[in-house]
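Study this one:
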Amino acid sequence: MLAASIREAARRFGDRPLLIDAAGRPWSYAEVDARSDAVAVGMTRAGVRERDVVALTLPSIPEYVVAYLAAVKVGAAAAGVNTRLAPGERAALVEMVDARLVVESADQVDELASVAGDAADLVALPDDLSRPVAVVFTSGTTGLPKGAVFDEARIAAICAVDVGLDAWDGGGPMLASTEFCHIGFTTKLAWYLRLGATQVLMDRWRPEEALRLAARHRMAALGGVPSQFALMLRSPAFDDTDLGALTAVTLGGGPASPALRAEIIERFGAELSVRYSSTESGGCGTGTAFGATDAEALSSEGRPRGPIEVAIRDEDGAGAPPGEVGEVCLRSPTTMVGYWRDPEATAAAFHPDGFLRTGDLGHLDDAGCLRLAGRVKEMYVRGGYNVYPAQVEAVLSQHPQIVDVAVAPRADEVMGEVGVAVVVSSGAAPTIEALREFAAPHLAAYKLPEHVVVVDALPLTAMHKLDRRALEALAAESPG
């Protein structure tokens, strides 16, 4: 699906830019196709074979896309590793998937291409819908990484949900607002190619630069996580930016408050669609309609998209009564095959009838719209990234001044949620700056707490378990 899409897109669109890098240099469809052919041959000469895994630990630059497509042309699965992770975290993910090859830099991509010789040596693979295409890393409730696997059939199904399998052309310039290793790029690349879209890249996402590029390229649509739009709205450059070409905004990857949604509609002057999904669901789930009523657009996650089914289940897995809150479960041809070489975790992620357990709580209203009510899992979302308190607590607990620690989320207007460390200390309590400095070598920056509360003892339930509700109340009242 993906290999065929880039080849056909190169034939149709030729010199049209597929990518515009951060320096403004365009990479055409034809160039990316030819270069990925050369790198694919280089990968085979490096020992990569069908159904191997190629780990991509380079940043979101054009060479990442070239390497991804090259791996797929060989028949290998690409596993993108977020460069924002600490070195130890990245190494653990590479080891987990037993990568045959690790691509770490643009120079390495060039080297693979230079040793390829004749790209005609690349052997065309037979169609195989079960062949893995991508491994997208996510995390469990304990924070341990898992790799969600997507095969050719899933990539095709995602394309069908988002744009249809017969769609060609009609795309335009798009801001690459998430890391390439994110589900929002990895599983969507096929339909970006088929629409002939142009991905406009940044070295690092910044609100002023995002606004400048949206205006310069006359973008008709913008997508991203809620915190990115909150930052753009608060940028001094916003009111002076010409966004007259913009007609549509798509939000996903985290909770968006009614106030933020209303401000986006008013100030961006565009119709809004809010999407709900997960990594395991392939980035497909529910969505509000563009131009929907306030009741739908401002406070719901919309209706199921295409063939996707939504079920609300109780703790025993049975259907919750209409209108009652339960776990949101999704069944769809877009959901992952399973977790990479982890049958137990895969079995735990699905009900026997194929519904995916999302870990989110919610209900369906009378109009059939999904309304979220919290999370089953102890997890929060900061700026579109999942943060698991247990993982952060395991690191902070090693600080010499900390006797006990727990992490809870606090609502934040920009990031959606941020972490608050509630600590019991021995002697002088560490400052938030000291905690962040201590944890930085072991955790990605977005996982670091942003506030600290010092208590005599952590709140416990009557069963002597950590009282998460009381903890969140402490976090909500924290200064700063």
Q: What stands out?
A: Residues 273 and 290 are 5 Å apart (CA to CA). The chain has two domains: 2-362, 382-476.
